[in-house]
């Protein structure tokens, strides 16, 4: 495979990625993108936002499930509901979110991204409709499994589409990440607001509607999925196989899957894969129970809604309004995640300005230090908590464009879907164990032990970044 080259835009029409100063040109130049880039960007930004809206609304529901349910009844046996057992239930859905990424990556190389993205959106809508009808925690678990299976195909499909269809790849990853973080932040916020007026099952049903609308849009969008590969001298869908890989038209057999997988893991991709796993473990470990952790900190007592409204209005609304309370931790949690929008953008810009390996080493090193400092600073008061929370939100997401871009540098275009499939198997499949790790530590140990464990995970990824920076990148030939 020839080295990845950045193609010049083929249209002068300004688009969503237009930047003054550009990513690589001189100061004052304006980079523009073509209609195909804008169409792809619109679809992946919409779908990515939907995926993470649902993903991060689940921890808000977790705080309700911990109080609403007492046992998990499997018929032949029962388990008490606590952070450890509920963490295992949530992890089952989150694990499938990652485990399905590998078959999703294989399929996307054969059938293309559009079909998988449409199926993903429809499946997520169905899963939240099942939560709406849920009579027990067992059915909740089934709904989460369905969500995980449907959502799992998105990242290999969406990221392969960006890497092969958008010419300004680094900026594409950045805007894609920003859209995901909008969903990550707005999902919990919207869920918390809806819970003021409805019970959690009704909220789940309402949340299913946007995915249905997005799926309808996905079936109508028009674009060339391989435009950037063709512009780089590879093969588009209409020009046959490229010389990048035997699997440039997709994996067609188990033997070919094993062959292409061995090629990937025989090289430096294996180190990037470990970085992805560390990112997933840290991400899931810190976020799954973060609303509950925040609730135990100073300044997070529930606030009666009646204290925020005029007395006459409270009397008019009745007893229900006087008993309703705001849960401050849910809104701070959402705000922390919204800061990740800036982290995603900065991370995407960094991929075009510095060596990716240096970025990985520095960003994960920062996450390790932040894990050690988080609780001491958060316990100092509400103001310091907001500050360290904002830094956490930024740092947690600045790493994502870095390892996503590293995949594009260390793998051939022909197996890009497979590569991202393996990557998100690591991020969300292996990474889902972060929920079990967090729940178990919080049940049987303490929050400081959890954050020390997270610091160790981030340190491993930082060291790998240093190792990669001292080796020669593959030529992909």
From TrEMBL:
Protein name stated in the entry: Sugar phosphate permease
Major site of localization recorded for this protein: membrane
The organism's taxonomic lineage, starting at the top: Archaea, Methanobacteriati, Methanobacteriota, Stenosarchaea group, Halobacteria
One Gene Ontology CC term in the entry: plasma membrane
One Pfam match: MFS_1
InterPro entries: MFS, MFS_dom, MFS_trans_sf, MFS_Transporters
PROSITE patterns registered for this protein in UniProt: MFS (PS50850)
Annotated PANTHER family: INTEGRAL MEMBRANE TRANSPORT PROTEIN, RESISTANCE PROTEIN MDTM, PUTATIVE-RELATED-RELATED
């Amino acid at each position: 495979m020839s080295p990845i080259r950045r193609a010049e835009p083929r249209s002068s029409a300004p688009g969503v990625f237009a930047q003054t100063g550009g990513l690589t040109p001189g100061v004052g130049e304006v980079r523009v993108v073509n209609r195909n880039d804008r169409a792809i960007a619109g679809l992946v930004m919409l779908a990515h936002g939907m995926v993470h809206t649902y993903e991060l609304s689940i921890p808000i529901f977790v705080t309700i499930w911990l109080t609403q349910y007492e046992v998990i009844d499997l018929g032949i046996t029962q388990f008490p509901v606590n952070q450890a057992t509920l963490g295992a239930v949530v992890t089952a859905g989150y694990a499938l979110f990652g485990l399905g990424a590998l078959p999703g990556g294989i399929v996307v190389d054969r059938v293309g991204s559009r079909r998988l993205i449409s199926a993903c959106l429809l499946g997520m809508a169905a899963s939240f409709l099942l939560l709406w009808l849920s009579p027990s925690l067992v059915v909740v678990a089934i709904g989460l499994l369905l969500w995980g299976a449907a959502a799992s195909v998105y990242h290999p499909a969406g990221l392969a589409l960006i890497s092969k269809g958008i010419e300004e790849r680094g900026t594409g990853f950045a805007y894609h990440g920003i859209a995901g973080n909008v969903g990550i932040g707005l999902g919990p916020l919207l869920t918390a607001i809806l819970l003021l007026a409805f019970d959690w099952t009704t909220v789940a049903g309402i949340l299913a509607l946007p995915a249905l609308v997005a799926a309808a849009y996905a079936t109508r969008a028009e674009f060339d999925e391989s435009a950037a590969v063709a512009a780089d001298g590879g093969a588009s869908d209409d020009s046959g196989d490229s010389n990048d890989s035997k699997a440039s038209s997709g994996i067609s057999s188990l033997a070919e899957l094993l062959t292409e997988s061995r090629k990937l893991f025989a090289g430096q991709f294996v180190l990037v894969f470990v970085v992805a796993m560390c990112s997933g473990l840290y991400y899931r470990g810190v976020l799954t129970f973060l609303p509950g952790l925040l609730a135990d900190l100073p300044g997070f007592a529930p606030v009666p809604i009646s204290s925020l409204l005029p007395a006459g209005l409270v009397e008019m609304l009745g007893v229900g309004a006087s008993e309703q309370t705001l849960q401050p931790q849910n809104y701070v949690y959402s705000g922390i995640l919204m800061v990740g929008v800036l982290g995603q953008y900065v991370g995407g810009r960094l991929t075009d300005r510095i060596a990716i390996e240096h970025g990985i080493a520095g960003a994960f090193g920062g996450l390790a230090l932040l894990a050690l400092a988080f609780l001491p600073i958060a316990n100092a008061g509400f103001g310091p908590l907001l500050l360290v929370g904002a830094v956490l939100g930024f740092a947690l997401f600045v790493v994502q464009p870095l390892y996503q871009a590293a995949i594009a540098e260390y793998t051939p275009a022909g197996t890009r879907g497979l590569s991202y499939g393996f990557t998100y198997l690591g991020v969300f499949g292996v990474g889902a164990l972060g929920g079990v790790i967090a729940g178990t530590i919080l049940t049987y140990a303490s929050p400081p032990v959890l954050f020390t464990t997270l610091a160790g995970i981030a340190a491993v990824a930082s060291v790998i970044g240093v190792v990669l920076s001292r080796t020669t990148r593959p030529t992909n030939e």
